[in-house]
Predict the structure.
Amino acid sequence: MMKPGEYYQRDRRAHPPARTEIYRTSVARSPNYALISLQNSIGEITGPKFGHGDIDPLDRDLIYNYAQQGESAIGERIILHGRILDENGRPVPNTLLEIWQANASGRYRHRNDTYLGAIDPNFGGCGRTLTDENGYYYFRTIKPGAYPFRNNVNSWRPAHVHFSVFGSAFVQRLISQLYFEGDPLIPQCPIIGTLPDPTVVERLTARLDLNATIPLDTVAYRFDIVLRGRRSTLFENRLEGN
Amino acid sequence: MTKLDYLKETPSQTAGPYVHIGLAPGAAGFEIYKQELGRDIAGPNAKGERIRVEGLVIDGTGSPVKDVMIEVWQANAEGRYAHPEGGGPVEEGFRGWGRVITDFRTGEWGFDTIKPGCTPGRNVGLQAPHLNLWLVARGINIGLSTRMYFDDEAEANATDPVLNLIEWQNRRATLIATRSERDGSAVYRFEIRLQGSGETVFFDV
């Protein structure tokens, strides 16, 4: 009898380690001791559920979700779409995906951002949606601008969109950032430089998707997200450990 | 030979300093959504003791981390999670999940919830009441998972399988919050130390 078991161990070699001197802020914010490995129990294989009552359909349209009546956000209009899958290749349906980003001039609508790039009065910079039954999602937004940040004196962030996703278990919780194909700032970025293997950034890169554009209106990028997969229990677990 | 066709988990990147724009825009300084998620962990109908939890996240220099965001995931007073595999039905409106934002000037955070009950262990026995916490911030490259236990549950804590998994007894205390009373209500204090002396235990879940 097969029943759902634990989630696959996270492959930490494919994620940035906690301490990465290239990204200076991580140095004082990273644990020195090794993480303690915990086998899944009830609090790990469960996680919060969200429904259409939690969000509004307009939340996925960043061009209009903060714009005044009759106006829209300034910048290159893009569709950002793709699927959320697990490591077994199965779609993750009805899961909450939230994004946030800078505006076209590289400025965030945040009380702590003092960059001189102009605020766009019609752009908030956040959106959220639920995947459909096939794990598919889409947003409409503007392409964010690059901006400088204090790391080295001359450090720049490539255009990027932050994303946050839940899956169905709290151990699948993931926050990361997506980049745009062909951006020359990608190889220079200290935060991308935290990734242990430079080829990993390929899996954080949205691809130009001409088939999904709206001609004469909006260009499109495709980006798929993969969450941890879950194994089936073929045999009873050994009754030891936690 | 053909390769196994598993996909690989998308790599993590830091949530950055402006995580609030996406996940708590009110804290970033603007209203956009009809409803921000994670503001009410327990809901109005939850049974059990109403408690407040407060604390600081402290970095390796001893300074408060003022831009951290914490997510809470907990069982109800009967030890059930609001999930199909959570052990059974929970009260209407009990979500057991919340988002906790700091005061940007001081780094202090706090939230109201109910005290959870014991939950089943992996195979046998019970886990002591605890909150599952997940921390993200600028400078944290991949979210940090930890737990908060309660100092007035000494008996349950003594047999908790996860606390007992921590080889170093002196490090177990980093996961236990301290209870006090304020205006007749329970307040638990919990400091999370990211690095250095008294470093909190973090888990690879």
User: Anything to note?
Assistant: Chain B has one domain: 3-193. The longest helix of chain B spans residues 19-23. The longest strand of chain B covers residues 50-58. Residues 3-193 of chain B form a domain with the Protocatechuate 3,4-Dioxygenase, subunit A fold (CATH 2.60.130.10).
